[in-house]
Amino acid sequence: MATWTGEELSTIGYAEELDLSSQRDDGTLGRPVTIWVVRVADDLYVRCMNGRSGAWYRGARVRHQGHISAGGVEADVAFAHLDPADAAVHDQIDEVYRTKYRRFGGNIIGGVVNPDARAATIKLIPER
Questions:
Q1: pLDDT for position 128
Q2: Domain range for residue 105?
Q3: Cα dihedral sign, 108-34-72-95
Q4: Would 1 be classed as within a structural domain?
Q5: Which Pfam families would you find in this protein's record (predicted)?
Q6: 120: exposed, middle or buried (C-beta count within 10 Å: 0-12, 13-18, 19+)?
Q7: What per-residue confidence (pLDDT) applies to 62?
Q8: DSSP string, the chain
Q9: Nearby residues of 65 by Cβ (< 8 Å), 6 or more positions away
């Protein structure tokens, strides 16, 4: 399994937002969505504010592949769906969201730090 370089982790993890495109059944990329991204240790995660019913999340569940762009880094990625029962990792992700995006306030951050969003957490894995 490929891993992120230290520079990629720093650049993407520091980026305010990430553009994510899911691969369609025909291999083309869908329209990118702009979302928040967080880094926990050597991994990158995104969450869908609309939970599992979110359109981009549903697309990611179908093909498990896509493309991201953040902070000048472009990468083809695989989407690994994080087990909602993995409380320790989810708690770490919650904390990073709260810290990184605190200036937006609790009401906004609550969109990605709640049970529905936790159930729609994706780990981004580089494909090289």
A1: 85
A2: 6-126
A3: positive
A4: no
A5: DUF2255
A6: buried
A7: 87
A8: -----HHHHHHHHH-S-EEEEEBPTTS-B---EEE--EEETTEEEEE-TTGGG-HHHHHHHHH-EEEEEETTEEEEEEEEEPPTT-HHHHHHHHHHHHHHTGGG-HHHHTTTSSHHHHTTEEEEEE--
A9: 22, 23, 76, 77, 78, 79, 127
Count of structural domains, the chain: 1
The position carrying tokens 């369609």 is: 24
10 falls within a domain = yes
> Which CATH number characterizes residue 118's domain?
2.30.110.10
Spell out the per-residue pLDDT of the chain, length 128, in tens: 789 999 999 999 999 999 999 999 899 999 999 999 999 999 999 999 999 999 999 989 888 999 999 999 999 999 999 988 899 999 999 999 999 999 999 999 999 999 999 999 999 999 98
- Alpha carbon distance 55, 68 (integer Å): 17
Is residue 18 within 8 A of residue 32, CB to CB? The reply is: no
